[in-house]
Amino acid sequence: MSTISALHTTNHVKHAPHGASHGPANYLTAGYGWKSWLFTVDHKRIGLLYLVSVTAFFMIGMAAAGLIRYNLIDPKGMLPADLYNKVFTAHGIVMVFLFLVPVVPGVLGNFLIPIMIGAKDLAFPKLNLLSWYLYMAGAACACWALLSGGVDTGWTLYPPYSSRSHTNVAPVAVGIFIAGFSSILTGLNIIVTVHQMRCPGMTWFRMPLFVWAMYATSLIMLLATPVLAVTVTLLAVERLAQIGIFDPKLGGDPLLFQHMFWFYSHPAVYIMILPGMGVISEVITCFSRKNIFGYTAVAWSSVGIAVVGFLVWGHHMFVAGEGYYLAMVFSLLSMFVAVPSAIKVFNWTATLYRGSITFQAPMLYALGFIALFTVGGVTGLFLATLGTDRHLHDTYFVIAHFHFTMVGGMVMAYFAGIHFWWPKITGKMYSDFWSRIAAILMCVGFFMTFIPQFIAGYMGLPRRYNTYPPEFQVLNVLSSAGSTVLGFAYLFPFTYLIHSIFYGKKAGDNPWGATGLEWQTTSPPPTFNFNYEPVVTEMPYEYSLATAPKPTFSYSSNGEAVKEEEHTHVH
Amino acid sequence: MLSIDLPFLPPRASEQAAQVDYLFYFISFVTGAATLLVFFLLVLMCAKFRRQGSADRTPRILGSHKLEIMWSFIPLVIFLVMFGWGVVVFDQGFQAPADAEEVYVVGKQWMWKIQHNDDNGTREINELHLKVGQAVKLTLISEDVIHSFGVPAFRDKIDVLPGRYVSTWYYPNKAGHYHLYCDQLCGTGHSQMVGWVHVMEPSEYDAWKDGKRPQGDGPTDGSLAWQGRKLFLKLQCSSCHNNKGRAPILEGIWGTTVPLKGGGSVVVNEGYVRESILHPKKKIHEGWEPIMPIFEGQLADPALNLSEEEVLVRLVAFIKTLGPGQTPVRTEQFPPPIGAPTEDGGKK
Fold first, then answer.
1. Residue B160 belongs to what H/E stretch?
2. ipTM
């Protein structure tokens, strides 16, 4: 603890002089020039570095998705087979390792966790910057491998195909390995921060649920990612040194890889979804002006998901030859992991009860999340059940299922979070009208894209097919049309959010009237987050008390926000 | 048989498929109802509890353990029902009936080589002809990477691994032509590794089988076991595996449990026989010296157009049927079955 405080003092001294002359001092005006960004140890600035980089990788991943949907317009395929294999591999690797895993921990986690618990920064600010550099190094390596020659194994890298493929498997493995360390260090940083840096009065059960979710996520990042690192290392060793580990030709066992890969990659889906769930708890409570329904249950369900999530990896291998009894055990455990997710959905819904609900963009995204995540969750039951998985495994049903959880769930939650905290991050308010249109358009495009894939999946269409039987064309064209709407919808926030930075109205410190320490400080916050020593005296989400902050929006009589008001800075 | 067909269902060609569909309907119904309930509640709440004005006061509701226990426990019970039912349906895929006909499938990039274990030695590529009402057991292996043998009409799919036999079985009950897919990414030609399963009425099927027989009195390939017997002689297995005591006699050994050197035991099945040919020193039969050479990489027979795995399949089929006193020493002692080629007359 003492070393941590010492580190902080040092930083404080180093940064305090900056920005004093630029209006009200905040973390954005604390320094100018590229050095002030690339060598920053301010968690908020590092969060913005992540924001810019994940957005870039999201766009690369989206471009690959566009090519996939373009290829599938015609049953004979529009791209050569090898290119198509490389495109969907790039889509998977970029979206999973460079977008979904780091997006919320890197952007929102970085920005918010210290502020939410009343700390000046994360426990290890320099380590935090190192995390970002590792992430960028891994990403550069992976992107170079994917764009220069490509990898054709799918993101799952199953040997012995990946042991023998003539594509850039080893460089991509190195990229994943390096990026993995970024994850491990971020997880470590968050865990120590939550344990050690909470401000006076911030007991464990007064922490915002976003912090709980991030804490659970960090446990997984810390414990599961090393296994991924080991796995891809072994794969690279097998390829480079021809040592038999996974390839039966060399005396290895391909199922060993699958066990190790999914031992990370199943918990990894919770790395991707848990932070999203945390965001939703913050947004739902704020826009219904209610306490969360069952704080303890929602908090512990995050931890429950993280723990049981470690025990279900074998449900990816029911028909892979893992054996009958093992399949039974994994099917049963998968049923147990579904329960905490169900609890969360019901508790969020119950939170709305007797609320005073408004429908700004964050809330629309959050409601979209609940709807889409519910579909994603229940369709997982078809795959956790042995009898039906035998038919559905490796078909488009699986693709539709995990896109509902990852895109319908996680990406929607990320957008909910970005829209919710944007006024805090930038101090500016974006267009209310366009942000709502975008949220609705995203939901529509999403349903159009992925509902046909459930049907194609039950009809048996296998994944990763460059060409397909002509009877599936109608469904594929529908899906491709939907993806066009979805891709178009994603460009909206990109446009109006950037617009808001330059032309947006000042947001004020607490436009949504939200509880939580992050809303008590200025927008954007000062470098060390608070100009006073924060003290917490109550539970989070006390929206029903008379002392709760009020939204600084003005509402028309029908309850809709008409226009953001100009606010003067109080501080 | 009860039959409910919905649009958007793939054709259904076996009783197993119907079982999967019923389970699918059950899960669809339950999860559909739950999802609609959530949607309905969301819409209801959003409509009913919209913000009325700045004077709104919300009640301070912190939760209800009673409700939480209810919506944890009820889903759990439903999930467990799904689990149990799923196990029952899954289980059926593992128990081929005793009268099932045998088919061997060898997958490679990018085709399915299919070998019926009939007295014709019928071979097909990317096509599988089956008879209505005749159970069939598939034993599958891959020559290179992982493939997956999937037939949606049977609601069945199994990953086909290199280096290891797996098996599944079907009981086709409806004639028709059904898709056969490779479901595991296996490279450039993955989406070309497709074919058809033709389920035929018995008379039609028998006619098809007859058509595969060579014209007139010409020799056929003989059954798989017969071909295996030829290979057994050609590879000179019988110089040691005979009654002279250099190696174990293989007669009647199939299905028995043999003790291993250094403890433990193993059941003689497809996997053990295959492994003992390729890597004889891995599991040594107690009481015998490890003198057999490693055959891995030595078995492919270009003259017969057989890959290593295809040779192994034939040797396995032969050893499976090898009864007392049947170890061949010289071919002429044992006349070939009717229609099968003789050792020298069979070659072109």
1. strand B156-160
2. 0.89
